[in-house]
Q: What sequence folds into this?
């Protein structure tokens, strides 16, 4: 969700809508469909999922808290994100909403092995979280190319409670991520609208300033930037390759063999 004083038209991104979120500002909305469900799908479909369930239950942890701690154990001296150096995911298992608006796109994974253990599950989970963050970077770049000026991410919703998800968004976008003091920040938004409607505040902006507080700011690890830039190149190449495969299968792909194109 990006706001601007003037309307900005971004291909593949919804809007601009006037006063849709903040009165007096134009709103663009770019999103990825069912990201939480994608993570569940990848984790629950892995052969090591029953083992994960049992170990997480034994520790009275959520599955994702257990996976995050397991990644910290197996990363050794390297940053946790480097565990996916040869494992890459394109996350459009349910088509692409933004910035491509292409429902025909499919999910992709490259770098799979015959491993079926908990380490393998944890690394595939990490690669999926990273893919969603790369999808966010893809949307941000489209919005910036159209004229938006973006420097900070504000996260809310269920996935913002996952510290790995938050850190990967900071590292991959290169932007600080701001979290609300109130964990259920979406409910605060509803309360702000209610307080404004009841006359307790003269404007939504004043209600926002008084009722919302910054809880935590997560900063990117700039020393890892080159690594994530390389992974982002692979991310974009996977899109290019998927479209090439589709063209081959529909007979619209042209190759030049033994002659100059």
A:
């Amino acid at each position: 969700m990006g706001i601007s004083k003037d309307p900005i038209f971004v291909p593949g991104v919804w809007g601009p809508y006037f006063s849709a979120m903040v009165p007096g500002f134009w709103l663009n909305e770019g999103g990825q469909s069912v990201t939480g469900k994608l993570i569940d799908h990848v984790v629950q479909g892995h052969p090591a999922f029953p083992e994960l369930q049992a170990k997480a239950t034994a520790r009275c942890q959520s599955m994702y808290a257990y996976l995050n701690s397991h990644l910290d154990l197996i990363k050794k001296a390297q940053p946790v994100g480097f565990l996916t150096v040869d494992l890459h995911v394109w996350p459009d298992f349910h088509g692409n909403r933004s910035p491509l608006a292409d429902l025909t796109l499919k999910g992709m994974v490259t770098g799979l092995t015959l491993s079926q253990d908990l380490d393998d599950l944890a690394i595939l989970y990490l690669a999926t979280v990273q893919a969603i963050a790369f999808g966010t970077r893809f949307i941000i770049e489209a919005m910036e190319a159209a004229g938006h000026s973006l420097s900070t991410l504000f996260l809310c919703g269920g996935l913002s409670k996952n510290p790995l998800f938050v850190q990967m968004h900071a590292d991959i976008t290169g932007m600080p991520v701001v979290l609300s003091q109130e964990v259920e920040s979406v409910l605060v938004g509803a309360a702000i609208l209610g307080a404004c409607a009841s006359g307790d505040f003269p404007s939504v902006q004043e209600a926002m300033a008084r009722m919302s507080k910054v809880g935590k700011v997560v900063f990117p690890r700039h020393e890892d930037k080159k690594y994530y830039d390389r992974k982002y190149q692979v991310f974009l190449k996977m899109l290019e390759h998927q479209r090439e495969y589709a063209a081959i299968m529909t007979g619209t792909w042209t190759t030049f063999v033994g002659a100059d194109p």
The two ends are 43 Å apart (CA to CA). The chain has a mean pLDDT of 94.
